[in-house]
């Protein structure tokens, strides 16, 4: 049988080669700036917590043992700090992993996922990896435009990704606006609130999304330890309704968290 050159070797699925690979830490500082803390790459001027260093040293002698695949102790600790039910938490290899798992689980080829103009770069990569179509919504003054997002929803829309606060713009959406966004979405659309920088906000009109997740069926909140000094440890987590936890647990790798 004759083969065309394209068929003479394994070929990625349609669309994969259209993805632009992520360029880590891409940013520039204006000339004359003496010292830059590159938060986009999680550089923490204080370094990791001494307690985290100590814990890592302790565990180093057990590198031959698989971790607990359900990350039970970590989920319980997170649940205690935030007042959550540990059953509604999934830990992941950075929150990047959970964002990818959400795309993989809830997007099929031809589906649409809505992102904002200056959205965190990985959303588009995971949307395209799932064979779905990223729909990019213009921002207003570098802020997510809730009305424009709602106007872009079609019957094919399955996910809306919103980083709040957003990286790289540094802007955030007040929680009343997030509620308005949720209220305007059809119930089959998953609203992903990516609160990677939640620890950086001290504003009365900001909420990471815990209450909305707890009181609805189509909202998840993703969080990370990366921006608070543990980027290298690759630990993220998601707070989600039980039916979403159940679906993601079927897709994620069994020992995904180091
Ligand atoms: C840094 C970041 C993440 C993911 O970081 P992880 O290290 O994978 O946890 C996700 N979303 C936003 C907006 C970020 O800035």
Can you put this structure into words, describing what you see?
The protein is α/β, with parallel strands linked by helices and 258 residues long. The chain has a domain at 71-249: Type I PLP-dependent aspartate aminotransferase-like (Major domain) (Aspartate Aminotransferase, domain 2, 3-Layer(aba) Sandwich), CATH 3.40.640.10. It has helices at 50-59, 72-82, 94-106, 121-129, 146-151, 175-184, 210-215, 242-251, and strands at 89-93, 112-116, 133-137, 157-163, 190-194, 219-224, 235-239. Strands 1-7-6-5-4-2-3 form a seven-stranded mixed β-sheet, with helices on both faces. α3 (94-106) packs parallel to α4 (121-129). The termini are far apart. The relative contact order is 0.16. Bound molecules: pyridoxal-5'-phosphate.
Overview in brief:
By secondary structure, this protein is an alpha/beta fold. It has eight helices and seven strands; from the N terminus they run H-H-E-H-E-H-E-H-E-H-E-H-E-E-H.
Question: Which hetero ligands occur in this complex?
Answer: pyridoxal-5'-phosphate
Strand residue content: 5-15%
Order of helices and strands: HHEHEHEHEHEHEEH
Q: What sort of overall outline do the alpha carbons produce when their principal axes are compared?
A: globular
Distance between the termini: 47 Å
- Helix share of residues? 25-40%
- Report the count of strand segments: 7
Give the spatial strand order of the biggest sheet: 1-7-6-5-4-2-3
Low-confidence stretches: none
How many helices? The count is 8
């Amino acid at each position: 049988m004759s083969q065309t050159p394209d068929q003479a070797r394994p070929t990625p699925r349609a669309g994969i080669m259209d993805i632009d690979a992520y360029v880590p830490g891409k940013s520039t500082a204006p000339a004359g700036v003496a010292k830059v803390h590159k938060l986009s790459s999680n550089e923490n001027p204080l370094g990791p917590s001494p307690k985290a260093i100590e814990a890592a040293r302790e565990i180093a002698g057990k590198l031959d043992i698989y971790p607990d695949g359900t990350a039970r102790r970590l989920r319980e600790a997170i649940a205690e700090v935030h007042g959550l039910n540990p059953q509604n938490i999934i830990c992941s290899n950075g929150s990047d992993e959970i964002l990818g798992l959400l795309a993989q689980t809830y997007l099929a080829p031809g589906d649409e996922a809505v992102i904002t103009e200056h959205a965190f770069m990985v959303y588009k990569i995971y949307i395209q990896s799932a064979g779905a179509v990223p729909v990019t919504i213009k921002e207003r003054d570098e802020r997510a435009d809730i009305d424009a997002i709602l106007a872009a929803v079609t019957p094919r829309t399955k996910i809306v990704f919103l980083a709040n606060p957003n990286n790289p713009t540094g802007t955030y959406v007040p929680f009343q606006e997030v509620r308005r966004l949720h209220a305007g979405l059809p119930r089959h659309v998953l609203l992903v609130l990516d609160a990677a920088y939640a620890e950086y906000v001290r504003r009365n009109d900001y909420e990471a999304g815990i209450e909305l997740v707890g009181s609805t069926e189509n909202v998840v909140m993703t969080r990370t330890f990366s921006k608070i000094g543990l980027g290298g440890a690759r630990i993220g987590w998601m707070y989600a309704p039980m039916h979403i936890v159940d679906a993601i647990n079927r897709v994620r790798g069994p020992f995904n968290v180091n």
